[in-house]
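Running log. JK asked me to keep both predictions on one page so they can be read side by side. First protein, sequence followed by its tokens:
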Amino acid sequence: MATLKEGLKAMAEGMPSMEFHKVLYEYMLYSDSHIFKSGIAMLDKKQDFKPGIYIIGGAPGIGKTSFLVQLAYNAMLNNFKVHYICYGHSINQVYLRLLSLAETQPLKDTSHLTFTDFPNITFSRDLPSPNAFPKLGQSDANEDGTLKTYNENATPIIFLDSLDIAAKYDPSIMLKLREFVDTHAVPVFVSYTHALSQFAENVSVKSYENNDFISYADVIWGLQFSNLVEGKTEGGPHRVESFLQKTALPISNITLVSVKNRFGLRGFKIPMQFVKSFGLFKGTSYESTPSSLSFNNDSLF
């Protein structure tokens, strides 16, 4: 078997420089590291992903679920076990988004993919029991008899979509998340929806003061419309809401802002056009319908 050095040398000899560096970066990103990487280079340079609660806030329709699903997909690529708690969208909808990512970032032929082809993810509407995750390093047999080995050093990663809907069913959800993180030392990513007028005016900790989850969160990011927050519209909150309802802003107008951060830099901004597959899901048609998808019910609930 060729060594890493020999393999990289062979790739370099047959690839243009820019393409080789892209392959090298992707190898380093998805190479059995026990440290979670978001898959967004600009974010990974600024953010140390330790166990904690990460909240992604934003106006309705800005792309919080797209961002959350992208992070979950990148975690699966790196062999982390993912548990996705669905409140804001159905399991079918999240699955279709994962399938869309698999098609745009192909690892194999995706024409006949079913739910069982994503072995590193489980779904539910509640926090998982620690026993729901395979023992770290456990190997399971694939259908062809080969073994699939999960990242031995990796901890499971939890995604909750979305906090405001989950809180209607369980007002103590953030307290439970905090206790779960403190007990099991896992990263938890949570989406949260702001009112359009409130979020477009200013992305700051002040925007969250009326919400009791501020004390539980370790990191708060905000997805914002850059041109609106910078004051390029006039007329106050009502004017902003009317503008957003009638306008489909391009991805270049959306920025990820670090509002609160116990693990890294606060106040950094990342233009979302650097997230290649961000926003791909809107307007996408699928040949498969939800009723034709194959689910393993034992793994869902």
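And the second, directly underneath as requested:
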Amino acid sequence: MLSSDEPDTFQAHQRLLDLNGVLLWPSVFRPVVFTRTRPLIRGSDPENLHLTLIFRGRLDGGFGRTSIDVGANEISVIDSSTPFSIRACGGHVEQHGIGLEVPRARLPLPRSWWAGSPERSSPPPPATGR
């Protein structure tokens, strides 16, 4: 769900590229709040991890007791199964970023790496097996 303090002037530009089940979407948009609630998750959960690289602007918000504050040239990781409220902020500055939606089943990461951890500053543990 998206909401804006200025719905009458809100603008966004986004392109969605499907790369064999992995979605890549570069975007430019005005400040907005992205919210994912438990009812939305119950209604539809793609079980993805969403990685966002911010080029311009800032993301802040929370996942339960965990909070994030991500700026330019930083990455956040969001689990589609976790309720959240993330604000893309920066005054009236357009936000520039690129998102990558990856099905969790396709990533050889233990649940402890992504569960409840919307941001990682260290690389994931090495994958085992093939």
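Observation for JK regarding the second prediction: The chain has one domain: 2-114.
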